[in-house]
Amino acid sequence: MEDLWKKTIDKELDAFFKDKGSCSRTSKRLLIYSLEWLSVGYFSALYMAGKKFAKNSLAEKCGSDDMREANAFLEDFFVKAEMGELKLVGESGVRYVYRVENCSSCAGMCPVGKQICYFEAGIIAGFLEAKLRKRVVVRETLCGGLGDDCCEFVARAS
Ligand SMILES: [Zn+2]
Questions:
Q1: For residue 9, what are the domain limits?
Q2: Rounded mean pLDDT of the chain?
Q3: How far apart (Å, rounded) are the C-alpha atoms in residues 1 and 40?
């Protein structure tokens, strides 16, 4: 059952990025909220889908391994994919902190007592893993799902 859902999510997300015109912000939200109701473990599936996409496809499109340029590329990608405005707000050694304003998954939603932007967290993780060539874990610390007015992602490389 879980495998089937992972495949479904992968397929839907591929379609979302291939042909954004046919998938509005509302339908992406609908997809994510429906999966919450229907599936157990979809959060990790979303995270893995985002990570796979960023590692296999997005990171290759960014020619530079220089972290300043790579982060600028990632910020640009979030805007182009209409996912929100991503900004690197803190960096110390192996730790990167990003904020996303107007996140397409959670901005303005009714708080549900938990963070929901696992796909976005996965994208950041996969992208950083490819660029840093290290294992990276990303945790979302602020989210519209928690009632915050932006998302915050803390990435830790090891
Ligand atoms: Zn969020």
A1: 2-157
A2: 85
A3: 9
Q: Is residue 134 within 8 Å of 94, Cβ to Cβ?
A: yes
Distance 141 CA to ligand 1 centre (A): 9
Distance of CA 140 from the midpoint of ligand 1 (Å)? 7
**CATH number of the structural domain spanning residue 143:** 3.90.1520.10
Residue 40 has pLDDT above 60, yes or no: no
pTM: 0.78
Going from the Cα of 69 to the center of ligand 1, the distance in angstroms, rounded, reads: 24
Answer for the pair 50, 119: CB distance below 8 angstroms, yes or no: yes
Number of compact structural domains in the chain: 1
Distance 130 CA to ligand 1 centre (A): 23
